[in-house]
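User: Here's a structure from my thesis project, written as structure tokens. My advisor, Dr. K., wants to see whether a designed sequence matches the one we expressed. Can you design one independently, without my sequence as a hint?
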């Protein structure tokens, strides 16, 4: 990138950074969202990359639209489940890599209004989010296997120009025709390797002029508002100063509906552990479902998500709200989320009637078990808090994850106890 290019970006970078703190607040306080992958690949049920990995000829793949029939009302069911699971926002695949658009677009006839269900699924999805009180995110794959210039744009300047116009047209429609959009979630900026190639600056400036409050992810070759680690939830120190959102499939195999994947589906407990790690590292969790081609929610997702929702009714204060401002604790002192004068200790394994918590310098005022709502007996000596007389059996029946709420007079500081070897060797 040239110096001139760098300098020309500065006003944009500065303006977005200045407004980010405000724009991103609701998202950081929400922590938990639902990803929905739906497309023609849902008909095959073999993976959302099937068109590419199985070398399915275009003409044959296009025929899948005849069997792609999401029922009216299905978007409302996803949104209703998301709300019941305690999720606060959703992100829906308006266009995946296959190129089939799920909205009423003028950029291509390959869309769900001209074929398949003959309806604008993006419009239905957005209406459903609003009806359930959820923020609205749209996923858009920059990579496109259907557009005639989607590959050749890599080396042919004319193809690139046409493809960028198409891309800008699609993104412009999504940002103009449906009222407020809260998140633009780009994916796979291939085959163009740079922000210059995609003209991402100009495109995102357009997006922000149409949707001033929007959050944009980091997949248009620009860092923008938040990072998107995929397939793993790790409270990495390096990413904590920036918004990050771990996106996860529901089965470790595929984002799209996948027949037979239920054997690998997450249990409630797995989801709670991922959520705890995200909260510990001041990040978000975006958990996916891949509806069937008639729009139904995969059966294996319903019970675990409903259980997570019930769990959040009791433990939500350890998840939602201004965890950010309190700073994060290192992960090796256990899973801890923090807010104001409070530390929430997540106990994922029930190790009997005592639990020691090391490293707290400030005197603790009270300890409550959020799972039971009851006070917990404790002693505090030096750097050690010891919770005592805990029940022998884990009190949480949803996922075996219990949270203890420790209240202090001021935001609690954590550090290695001076006598531990870790302190001596200078870990931080
Ligand atoms: C990857 C995959 C894509 C999926 C996305 C979600 O980029 O290519 O199929 O939609 O991750 O994060």
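Assistant: Designed independently from the structure alone:
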């Amino acid at each position: 990138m040239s110096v001139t290019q760098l300098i020309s970006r500065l006003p944009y970078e500065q303006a977005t950074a200045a407004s980010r703190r405000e724009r991103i607040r609701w998202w950081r306080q929400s922590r938990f969202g639902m990803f929905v992958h739906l497309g023609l690949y849902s008909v095959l049920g073999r993976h959302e990359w099937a068109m590419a990995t199985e070398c399915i000829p275009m003409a044959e793949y296009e025929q899948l639209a005849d069997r792609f029939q999401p029922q009216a009302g299905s978007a409302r069911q996803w949104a209703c489940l998301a709300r019941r699971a305690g999720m606060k926002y959703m992100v829906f695949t308006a266009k995946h890599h296959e190129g089939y658009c799920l909205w009423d677009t003028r950029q291509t006839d390959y869309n769900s209004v001209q074929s398949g269900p003959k309806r604008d699924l993006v419009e239905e999805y957005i209406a459903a989010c609003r009806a359930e009180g959820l923020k609205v995110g749209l996923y858009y794959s920059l990579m496109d296997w259907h557009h005639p210039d989607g590959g050749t744009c890599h080396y042919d300047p004319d193809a690139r120009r046409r493809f960028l116009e198409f891309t800008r047209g699609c993104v412009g429609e999504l940002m103009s025709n449906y009222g407020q959009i809260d998140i633009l979630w780009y994916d796979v900026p291939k085959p163009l390797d740079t922000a210059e190639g995609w003209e991402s600056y100009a495109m995102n400036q357009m997006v922000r002029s149409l949707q001033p409050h929007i959050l944009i992810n980091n997949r248009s070759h620009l860092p923008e508002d938040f990072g998107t680690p995929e397939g793993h939830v790790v409270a990495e120190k390096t990413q904590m100063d920036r918004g990050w959102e771990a996106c996860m499939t529901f089965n470790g195999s595929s984002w799209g509906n996948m027949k037979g994947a239920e054997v690998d589906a997450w249990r409630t407990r797995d989801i709670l552990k991922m959520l705890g790690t995200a909260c510990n590292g001041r990040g978000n969790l975006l958990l996916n479902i891949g509806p069937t081609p008639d729009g139904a929610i995969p059966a294996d997702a319903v019970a675990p998500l409903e259980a997570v929702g019930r769990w959040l009714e009791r433990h939500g204060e350890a998840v939602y709200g201004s965890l950010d401002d309190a700073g994060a604790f290192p992960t090796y002192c256990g899973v801890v989320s923090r807010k104001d004068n409070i530390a929430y200790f997540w106990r994922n394994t029930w190790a009997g009637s005592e639990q020691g918590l090391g490293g707290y310098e400030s005197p603790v005022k009270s300890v409550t078990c959020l799972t039971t709502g009851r006070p917990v007996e404790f002693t505090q000596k030096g750097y050690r808090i010891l919770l005592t007389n805990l029940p022998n059996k884990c009190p949480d029946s949803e996922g075996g994850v219990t949270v203890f709420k420790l209240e202090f007079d001021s935001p609690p500081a954590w550090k290695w106890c001076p006598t531990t070897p870790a302190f001596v060797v200078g870990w931080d």
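When you compare it with your expressed construct, this may help: The chain has a mean pLDDT of 93.
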